[in-house]
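Model the whole thing, not chain by chain.
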Amino acid sequence: MKSLKTSIKIVVPTLFLILSTAFFIVFSAQAGTLAAVYIFMSRLKAGLDGSGANAVQFILAIDTATNIPTAGTITIEFPDDEDTSWCRTAGALTVTAVAASAVDLTGTTWDIDSALPTSGTLTAACSQGGAGTVDTITISSVGSLTAGTTYGVQVASSTGVLGTNGTTGEHEVTVTAASGVTLDSKSFKIYLLGDDAVVITATVSDMPTVVCSISSNTVNLGTLYPGGAYATGGHTISTSTTSSGYYWAVYGTGDSSTDAGLYKSTATTHLIPSGATATLDLTNATIYGFGLTLSDPDSTDPATVAPNFVDTTAGTFGTIDRLYSGAKLVLSQSGTQGSAENSTVTYGAKAGSSAPAGTYQETVYWICGGYY
Amino acid sequence: MKYNGILLLPVIILLLSVYPSYAQIALSIGVSPTSKVIKLNPGESYSDEIVYWNLSQEADTYRVFISGFEQIENQPGTAIILTAEEDAITNYSASKWVTVSKDILELEPNKNVKLQYTINVPTDTTDGEFNVEIFLISENAYQQQGTAAFTNLAAGTPILIQIGDDYVQNAELLRFVADKKVYEKIDVNFLTTIKNLGDMHITPTGEILIQNIFRQEVARIPFNKNAQSLLRDTLGNYEDNWTQSGYLTPSKAIALGPMKAKLMVTYRSFQPGFAVLASETTFWIIPWKIIIAILTVLLLAIIIRISKKKIEKRV
Amino acid sequence: MAERVGFEPTVRKPVQRFSRPSLSTTQSSLLRHKLYHKDMLFPLLTNIFNLHIIIYMPNILRILFTIYICIYPISLLAKELDSPNYKIVGATTKGGGTTQTTDGDYSALLEIGRISNNPRNYSTSYKMFTSPEEAFLPAVPEVACFETTTNGSSNCTTGPTELTTGGMVAICGPSGCYDKARFEIDINDNPTDTLYAVMISTDNFSSDIQYIDGSSFWPESISTHNLSDFLTKTDWETQVFNIQGLQSATTYYIRIFALHGDFTQTEPGPISSATTSAGSVFFDIDIEDSTGISAETTAPYTISFTGAYELIGGSASTTAEDRIWLDGSTNSEGGFAIVVRGVNGGLKSDTTGQTIVSATADLNTALDGFGIQSEYIDYDTYPYLGSITAMTDYSGTGNYVGIVGTSATKVYESDAPVYNGRMALKVIAKPGMDKSAATDYQETIYFVLIPRF
């Protein structure tokens, strides 16, 4: 019994000592890597001092491999021989948790799932390195981080000013998420350029411009009943210009010798002339011919339809002539026209009672230009 | 049988005019520059380009014409090419000096196309201004069935070429009137006709001063604010408008009754003040409806007053 | 049958092998052995035995023995043998037995009256068998290859063909792997059913000792290391990257030990080391016309809509003569993203105060606009590496452009490491008829390449 007691006095403490040591070994901090990380810098130019147009901000996306308990920090550390170039002025930074960024790779661990949580209020600061230390951005009061979730956070200059190192090429940074003895970190490269900007310069010419359109090059006039009602058809014209004004003029073809108008070119040829008068009232039973009207594009000034071609009276159309010299001004405007404006053109045609049956056609030439 | 005839007739007419399917396309053309003024010397050569584009969804084909040009219906600032015959006989056409890189331009949708041109001035050219227009007219293959109007689109760039430094600018004011004699409301169109007697184009500018019977300035409107140019040896009709709502100006001048409009125009590019064209015209602003209404009210008032007096007298 | 004792060199195959009895004899013997030790009341009896030994041994031996029974289970084996190769050496009726942990992963084989593991039994190269199971030990394995950054060739033979011909850079990208590695095992003629476990360290096993987990292939601590981390050579090497979760720019040391039945774990084999890549990224901008696939130009980078490319208000769209050429390559596993951001959100003139605003649009129908369009993408094609694509807005044809706005937008993306990525962007502008003439329309576009590690 006595030797049993003695044995127990020796064995039990020894056992205890070994097992407790084993416990310590089991629960010591194991630093892991980050499952995914990226740093999205707003500028990649080397040597930015962080002021004014040279401001730099960082968006960090981070996915830890281990669950990091709450009240932790996230640090970004820069190379040792680049002190004061990344943290241009030490001090507090603006920090904002972000739930997405333009850099996210959808459906992967590099896709921010949620904004960085906080254990209170997120704060951030940058500190400058010195002998044995490095420029560091520290984000504090970070909430608990779940492995497998990617968090996003943005830091920008405030009292502290972020900049970039003056050397182009690769720079190694280390991102660490830590709370107590639990930490995950990863070192990786970012790249700085001599110049990250492409400047696009452009001259807008001072040459005046005019753009003219006709909505359709063919207008069906249907059937003309000799001595019957008049037929109509139409299209739109549109204009825009930077010159001091625009104008439209019109001339026809007809039978290529007598007058403009609808012409039946097959035997027996026949011309329904546009007419010698300035306008045609096709509601009058005795009047036949071919003419057109235009609508006022802007109902008020400055565009003006020539008096003979206004569409204010139904059935009254302005007549046209042949050839270049027969061109008549139908629409004009003084002043530029920044956006296209439309006018509706309506053709009116009526055949005389002697007109033979057949196909009648006219080709109307629309000229547009800007004032010189 | 009668009914058959009535039914047949429309059918025959319908058959006579066949309803075709038309291949309709939109036409569009953009041009820059819309015009050009160049100063050259005899024997000189000049090259430049005109940019065209097509904003429709289909390709449009245009044929290139080079010819002298004239104003359309005496409208300054407008241009239409001359026929080949007219171009041959005119004294001021520079069409023979100009060569272009293409005769047919195919304008694909949404593309800028450049047409290069070269002007070779002959060595024996006299001083003065010559003109030429590079003019595009669309060409389309039509499905030609049935009664229809086909349209073509044309646009050009008139070019004014000034040869030498020795030129004459001279113009004559032929007419300056208001389009009506009496106006109920103030919407007056001033019609001016100027003839260019010189040997280069002019761009007359000026203003029209309108005064009332008390010689107070009622309005001052610009003349030819679009800067429409007048070709040499040509008549030009200018139209300027004065519109005002109400009969009282902001400076409290009355715009009623007899009005006088004075036109002052200069046109020379060098020392314009030494050649001023001036003219006057008169017109009336009579808001007769308002006047009749006022008179009617007055008359009624007088009648009532007289009637009252008569009644009082009787009593 | 008398016991035999054999000498086993620590790095070489055993000089002497015992004759192997027939399968049936071996199996039945083993079964009886097993039954005797495990299936009877032996766990309890074994514990009583332990106590008996502890109480009656001298003090110093008691302490040593206590340590032995506490620590030994951690490193002991426990898989049922089901091997075609069995041998019995010295069946004995002397005392002894096995005990297991409750999870069944560990067993202790206890012998009495054996030669102890006294260091005097070791030489630097040889060790005396001190217990019968040592005759069953497989050969100590070696590391046939352990690679992270090899380039152009590889000692690994069972991996992808790209690895064999191109090295690890062919399957990890420029500069090799930064967070993973591949190893292969030289089994030294061990049977195919031999199991192996891998020990890994960053300080050559002086204090940092971890093991590779057999399912995640990440390093794990001793506390989570168990039987499922022992895999056959085939199972280890089927996984292309059989060590993952490493830190970049770090030298790792591995050694492998083998197991071929209960109690037969070998000593770890020789150490092999490899250093992970520090990560690699490259980005460059060049300005050249559409033929500039190989062009290299220096800053400043400018593109002009002037001269023959001058913009005309109201005209059709104009494409600038020069392109923006970009180089991008990286070994980051998430590839890279290239984003753009404009200062003005369009071409802005200080003279006129007008901006030709940038938006994603078809400039054939829009009246006014400005943007960029991807024209060219090329990269070295490797089956294990990634590809580069342009985002939808920037993949249009004709005059369809993507926005260059004041907020960053992604233009190009690679989904995995890429070698020699080369891309080109067209710049297209269309001023509306309302844009006044000026020579100072301008936009500054910032380009940023973000590697995703």
